[in-house]
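Exercise 3.2. Students should predict the tertiary structure of the chain below and write it as structure tokens, then compare their answer with the key that follows.

Predict this chain's 3D structure.
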Amino acid sequence: MGSKFHTDLSQELLLMLNDADDHNVIIQTGADQNIKEFRAHSNILRARSPYFKSALSANWITKNNNMIEFKKPNIRPAVFEIILKYIYTGEVDLSNQSGDNILGVLVATDELLIEKLFNYVQDHLMEKQFNWVKQNYVLVLHTVGKLDSCKKLYDYSIESICQDPKPLITSKDFPSLDKDILYGLLKRDDLRIEEIDAWDYLLKWGIEQTPGLGSKNNDRKKWNDNNYKALKKTLNLFIPLIRFVDISSSDFFDKIRPYRAVIPLQTYEEIAEFYYKNTLPKTTTFPPRNAKVQIESKLIRPNLAHIIAGWIERRNDKELSNKYNFQLLYRGSQDGINVSTFRSKCNNQGRCIVLVKHQESSKIYGGYNPNGFTGSYGWQYASESFIFSFESGRDIQNMKISRVSSSYYSYAMYENYNNNGFNFGNTLYMNNDNQIYFSNSGYYDNYDGNVNNILSPYINQNNVFVPQEIEVFKITNS
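Answer key:
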């Protein structure tokens, strides 16, 4: 059985690097005021690096007094020192190195074709130095985005940004982000960013990128027509990537309307029509970001369907564990608003949600039926049932939910297919006169808003209204 003495070999080669006087290569690294010369042995360089094997061939080398001279101004001395030690000893210690130096080693080893060290450094940046990467996303993306071999680190950085964009968009370097990288990020459906924030930071980036604007001229009240035209040209590629329909009407008025001059006229007209008439735009067709819920509703936007799914899972709608498909079973405006049609479309379809819109209000009422409509008679047990309301089909600020009280799970749903379309514990129900009734029965309790708040403003009036629209969706997971 043989023996191996790698440690002794490494130490002896390190002595050869530091103390030997028989070197035949001088490598000058760095530029300007940061230049350093390193002495090395051509045979070791050739053996350890395919790059040096070619570069130190007889056709490439320059000699001065029988000494091969070689210049690498693009590699900093601190970076080359790490690489040269690895070439001689096969050892590397990055624990006390700055992130900037480690990134430099990655780029240099890619150029020098030192594959094992390159792979190690790339993994080290992702596993041990990612806090530094997050603080320097722009530098990292601009550096490794140019190198096909660094795709692993690039993709990892992009995925991390999508999960948490804040470190990137709030960094001082964000306004200098490459436009192709920004375009790729805004195009992604999994970028976890509120759409109004996407708009705000796009404007910030665009202002900095536009000649004549920037930090010295960022007050739009002082801009002239040429300034707006220049900014419009900068942002032209990016405007279609903003999901305007997921921005609240108040933010539209305060933050988008003042910049209408930079938005193409047809796009702005469609956006305005959406806010005034709830008509979906024709030319901006991107789905909501992070869409884990598929729904085609005339009453609510998909972001509200995400909130409902979050209530079903009892978790934040940004952290859904399942994907949901809300399949339309019944729509009153096309099927007819009456109990018999409701039942023929919805019975025995499994769990579902009901959405109801009042004729004289923007408010949406609804309920979750975890059992589905069974077509039987009597009270139905359901521990996960809840009722809810939204101020409008796109308002995510003022929603309210009331879950069935733990004392009344057996009274969560009432089934009588002759008299009711739906009936959430005699609290919210559709009667056989095809009207919607409210009653604070006590079966649904205070959760994120009590029943009175959910049913207002009608609970203290006649407790009944004729619905403008009713939708029922079957819920399935994918």
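Discussion points: The longest strand covers residues 467-477. The chain has three domains: 1-91, 179-277, 293-477.
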